Amino acid sequence: MIDFNEQDTLYVLGDIIDRGNGSIKVLQDMMRRPNVHGIFGNHEWMCVECMKWLSEEISEASISRIDEEQLMKLSDWINNGAYPTIRELLALSLEERMAIMDYLLDFSTYEEITVNGKYYLLVHAGLGNFQKDKPLFHYDVNDLIWERPDWEIPYFDEDDRFVIVGHTPTLGISGKAEIFHHNQFIAIDCGACFQDGALACLCLDTMEEFYC
Predict the structure, then answer these.
(1) Which parts of the sequence belong to the Calcineurin-like phosphoesterase domain (predicted)?
(2) What predicted TM-score, i.e. pTM, was given to this entire model?
(3) Of 42, 78, 109, 116, which alpha carbon lies 20 to 30 A from 71's?
(4) Is residue 3 part of a domain?
(5) Which domain holds residue 93?
């Protein structure tokens, strides 16, 4: 639909996995494309925190190393729709699983790009504990992948600077499965995992919106 080709660059703002089937096929397709860049979402972060020890061969020694914190992380991940992803990962060979984990660990926590003279900050959730004079590298991973913005408090004073986020389905903001624009925020998660949701893509060259 977007006529994606080798001259394009695609940024995927996280939450690629969970809450549905086929997540791992999407990741494997992304892995083959050097012009596709993944940004950590909370779902990918939960995955890498759990899968290293889930992939170990089960033994008395490995079970004894599982602590309460690991079990809590696994519980959080499962409560956020991890079961289809875990099932698909465990169907792979250990080598294939480790290749996917290595790929996920190469995801960035945010990207800064300029298109047609406009600055865009790409981040999964937002900037938790936001302060206008706070450098981006002072935000920790939880600020970037979990904390939702206050849409009424813009991050930038300049009208040519924008932040594009996922994480918060627009169905819960505007009630519509459409990209949400407000106060220089662009929310692009249109709730593809929900019955009334959509998968959205925004072309920054033309600002054309695509849905399926």
Answers:
(1) 6-174
(2) 0.94
(3) 109
(4) no
(5) 10-105
